């Protein structure tokens, strides 16, 4: 599975599937691209491969701890579980 941000393939350090989405550990340009797309809205974020193939994703959480940044993305069609 890969993340596509705009027209770039973004390679996470690690990628984990969660119900309705994924958690990705990102660094460097991969993290910068995703944050720019999220807050500036200039590009879409999509998954390529796996159960969420070609699904548009929304960033719902960003957690930073030391040098690690974990981003949680949810499929736009997924329902939130509480």
Task: Summarize the structure in words.
With 82 residues, this protein is of the alpha+beta class. It is built from one helix and seven strands, in the order E-E-E-E-H-E-E-E. It has one helix spanning 28-40; strands at 2-5, 8-10, 14-18, 21-26, 45-48, 57-65, 68-75. The strands form two sheets. The chain has a four-stranded antiparallel β-sheet. A three-stranded antiparallel β-sheet has the order 2-1-5, with helices on one face. Strand 1 and strand 2 (8-10) form a beta hairpin. The protein is globular. The model has no long low-confidence stretch (mean pLDDT 84).
Widest sheet: strand ordering: 3-4-7-6
Major sheet: 4 strands, antiparallel
Pairing-aware structural class of the strands and helices?
Answer: alpha+beta
Radius of gyration: 12 Å
Order of helices and strands: EEEEHEEE
The unreliable regions are none
Rounded mean pLDDT score: 84
> How would the global form be characterised?
globular
Tell me the span between the first and last alpha carbons. Answer: 26 Å
Instruction: Assess the beta-strand content as a share of residues.
Output: over 45%
Number of H/I helices: 1
Q: What share of residues is helical?
A: 10-25%
Number of strands: 7
Reconstruct the topology from this structure.
Blueprint: E1 2-5, E2 8-10, E3 14-18, E4 21-26, H1 28-40, E5 45-48, E6 57-65, E7 68-75
Antiparallel strand pairs: 1-2, 1-5, 3-4, 4-7, 6-7
């Amino acid at each position: 599975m890969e993340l596509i941000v705009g027209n770039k393939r973004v390679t996470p350090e690690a990628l984990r599937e969660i119900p309705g989405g994924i958690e990705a550990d990102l660094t460097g340009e991969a993290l910068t691209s995703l944050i720019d797309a999220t807050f500036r809205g200039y590009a879409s974020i999509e998954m390529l491969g796996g159960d969420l193939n070609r699904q548009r994703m929304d960033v719902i959480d960003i957690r930073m701890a030391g040098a690690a940044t974990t981003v949680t993305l949810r499929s736009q069609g997924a329902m939130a579980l509480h």
